[in-house]
Design brief:
The complex is a heterodimer. Chain A is α/β, with parallel strands linked by helices. Chain A contains 12 helices and 14 strands. Chain A has a 7-stranded mixed β-sheet with strand order 3-2-4-5-7-6-12, with helices on both faces. A 5-stranded mixed β-sheet of chain A has the order 9-11-10-13-14, with helices on both faces. Chain A is globular. The relative contact order of chain A is 0.12. A 6-stranded parallel β-sheet of chain B has the order 2-1-3-4-8-7, sandwiched between helices. Chain B has a two-stranded antiparallel sheet with strand order 5-6. In chain B, helix 7 links the parallel strand 7 and strand 8. The chains are: A alpha/beta, B alpha/beta. Chains A and B meet through helix 3, helix 4 and helix 5 of A and helix 5 and helix 6 of B.
């Protein structure tokens, strides 16, 4: 029998890791401030007391060393989870991630398995400025060899984390700070959900229809799912029914669910907190453009993302560049009005 | 620590094997890369011939590989560098599949997806990387895994003196010292980081001196000699197996060939290599063996024939193996 209770996303992540550590002695966690502190964003809260310092390991501020060590330990059959505190910090250790963790399986002709989960915090909205507010998952999805998971709520966070730990490949797991349910940062309450007590998995590559609709498809992920749901609620009052698709994973990407939805609605908005240029929004637009022999669009594809600027500090500036509920709603309204150009 | 007769003979034979392998590769590598077989106007074409791409050979550095690996078991992990053949051979990586990998063949260690800088043999617990300074973090991870699994396995990270100025070196040494990891860091100081000599890159003479900064033992080996390396590595491996933690070893060794094949070595003083070859560690070890009555003409000839046979067989295997089908490029991104 399922016993569900409401958990924050942070609690769901902790529960997932704890259950997998009980099940499999080869799972361990390392990272900065993950033991006594419980992780800066509480993703490992309480695990030190349960599993001890041999399996919940604080590391020096040496990301290349401990992420590279995770690769080395995984090659020996361990199943490490490493936390990189903010995704913005990957610059100091990217070589160990994109040249080694991501490529060794391929370069070995499939002979080397690297079951590493690398989890990290993403996102802005709380005025932490350009070096602590980025999303950057698109950068990692761009590199072949990394699975990329970006949950939007507690239920998904638990199932996707267990799936990630059991996967024999490197998985990058990105949690948005503004949906973790932290007691010190405003968050979207929709991300705190009922979560079954027992362990369960959510397969990668299966997008979730977070809300059904017929007029416009909003493809999104992470915290932006929560924003899109609020926007869809407002639009409903005006008679515009938006369908919200939560991608959940970028690698693998569930193109079919997106295509089916756009086939139904004829309108596609991609809403993302990542940089607009050369990223996720362009990728989704491209895969739909490639299917225009099967999909009849009623309006041009629209994209929302951070324009080509670093994330600014000041509140009005930050709110301007990160897509908000209002931006999503307004864009959907304009799309319902919009017309396609006719071929000559 | 003195090597047994068996270890001595193993080191001698493997040094010969490495040398013959590298010298053979140097010749094979040039096939198809020189005029008149290439585009008009070029002096050399790196992408042509049966073994395309960069090629970094280790002739002269054999003592480092055999002196360390003589102490290792199959379960011990070795992570090598972009110049990896001597380590791979000394760790027991099969010559035929390793050579096939460099020929880009389907029978290669990585089915032709890695090439000479990216050799992976999980069975013999060998891997390497084309990135300078990248061997140390994964070796720490392998050592950490051994500890967690309750095994007395050790891990070895090889790297050059140029890599000792990378952040990974300092991060890894600290981690190994802090966690008392059974890892041995072995720095091959061949003096040249491509074209920059150590005097222009490193503020101190001996990198082993840096161990003290991280609470781990440092041993400098001043001579490019298999017995000297054997002694230092023996102490380090024994310490690691007993739970005594990490060691940093630096060996002064010699690179007889260019940084890569085709390197004109304009940066190197004329006659340097000729001078270095006068203290070639292979005849030197042979002399020791003869003096101890362990080697004579007939025995030496038999060893050299065996070595020649292995190398010939490996290159024949590689040449005769099929290429992978082009579509196999799409496989193995994930396990």
């Amino acid at each position: 029998m399922t016993t569900a209770r409401k958990l924050t996303m942070a609690q769901a992540i902790v529960e997932a890791i704890g259950q997998e550590m009980e099940r499999d002695p080869k799972v361990f966690v390392m990272g900065e401030d993950i033991a006594k502190y419980g992780g800066i964003f509480s993703a490992t809260s309480g695990l030190l007391d349960r599993f001890g310092p041999e399996r919940i390991m604080d590391t020096p501020i040496s990301e290349s060393a401990f992420i590279g060590a995770a690769t080395g330990a995984a090659a020996e059959g361990m199943r490490p989870i490493a936390e990189l505190m903010f995704v913005d910090f990957f610059g100091v250790c990217m070589d160990q991630i994109y040249n080694h963790l991501a490529k060794n399986t391929y370069m070995s002709g499939g002979n080397v398995r690297l079951p590493v989960v690398l989890m990290t915090a993403i996102g802005g909205g709380y005025n932490d400025a350009a070096q602590h507010s980025q999303c950057l998952y698109g950068l990692f999805a761009h590199v072949p060899g990394l699975k990329v998971v970006v949950p939007s709520n507690a239920y998904d966070a638990k199932g996707l984390m267990i799936q990630a730990i059991r996967d024999d490949n490197p998985v990058m797991y990105f949690f948005h700070k503004g949906i973790m349910g932290l007691p010190w940062m405003a968050y979207y309450e929709g991300s705190t959900t009922e979560v079954p007590q027992e362990a369960y998995t959510i397969p990668f590559g299966q997008a979730r229809i977070a809300r059904e609709g017929t007029d416009v498809t909003i493809v999104t992920l992470s915290q932006m799912v929560q924003k899109a749901l609020v926007a869809a609620g407002e639009l409903e009052k005006e008679g515009i029914r938006a369908e919200v698709i939560d991608l959940r994973t970028l690698e693998p990407l569930d193109v079919e669910t997106v295509a089916r939805s756009v086939m139904k609605t004829g309108r596609l908005l991609i809403a993302d907190e990542h940089y607009l240029n050369f990223g996720l929004t362009g990728e989704i637009a491209a895969v739909i453009a490639e299917r225009l022999d099967q999909i009849a669009l009623k309006a041009p594809v629209r994209r929302l993302g951070v324009p080509g600027v670093p994330i600014p500090y000041s509140r009005p500036l930050e709110q301007f560049v990160i897509p908000q509920v209002q931006h999503i709603a307004d864009t959907c309204r304009s799309m319902v009005e919009a017309k396609l150009a006719r071929a000559a | 620590m003195e090597p047994t007769a068996e270890q001595l003979m193993w080191m001698y034979e493997n040094m010969l094997l490495i040398r013959e392998y590298e010298e053979t590769m140097a010749k094979v590598y040039l096939e198809g890369k020189l005029p008149p077989h290439i585009q008009k106007g070029l002096a050399f074409d790196i992408g042509s011939g049966p073994v395309p791409g960069e090629m970094h050979l280790s002739a002269g550095q054999e003592p480092v590989a055999v002196g360390v690996c003589a102490h290792l078991r199959k379960e011990d992990t070795v992570v090598g560098t972009h110049r990896p053949h001597h380590f791979a051979i000394a760790k027991g990586v099969p010559l035929d599949r390793m050579t096939a990998e460099m020929f880009g063949k389907a029978t290669g260690l990585g089915r032709g997806k890695g090439g000479h800088m990216h050799l992976f043999d999980p069975e013999h617990k060998f891997s390497c990387s084309g990135i300078v300074g990248a061997s140390m973090p994964p070796a720490c991870g392998a050592a950490l895994a051994a500890k967690k699994l309750g095994k007395d396995w050790v891990a070895v990270a090889f790297f050059g003196e140029g890599a000792a100025n990378q952040g990974t070196f300092h991060e890894s040494l600290n981690l190994a010292g802090l966690w008392k990891l059974p890892v041995i860091f072995v720095c091959e100081d061949n003096k040249w980081a491509i074209s920059v000599d150590k005097d222009h890159s490193t503020a101190i003479r001996c990198d082993a001196d840096r161990g003290v900064a991280y609470g781990i033992a440092g041993i400098g080996v001043a001579k490019n000699d298999a017995l000297e390396v054997f002694k230092a590595a023996g102490e380090a491996v024994a310490r690691a197996r007993k739970g005594g933690g990490a060691t940093l070893i630096e060996v002064k060794t010699d690179r007889y060939m260019g940084h890569f094949q085709g390197d004109a070595e304009v940066y190197r003083p004329k006659g340097e290599v000729d001078e270095l070859r006068k203290s070639d560690p292979i005849p030197s070890l042979a002399g020791t063996l003869r003096a101890r009555g362990m080697l004579d003409e007939a025995k030496d000839k038999a060893i050299r024939e065996r070595v020649h046979g292995s190398v010939t067989k490996a290159f024949d295997f590689a040449r005769q193996s099929p290429y992978p089908a082009p579509r196999e490029a799409l496989e193995h991104v994930f396990a």
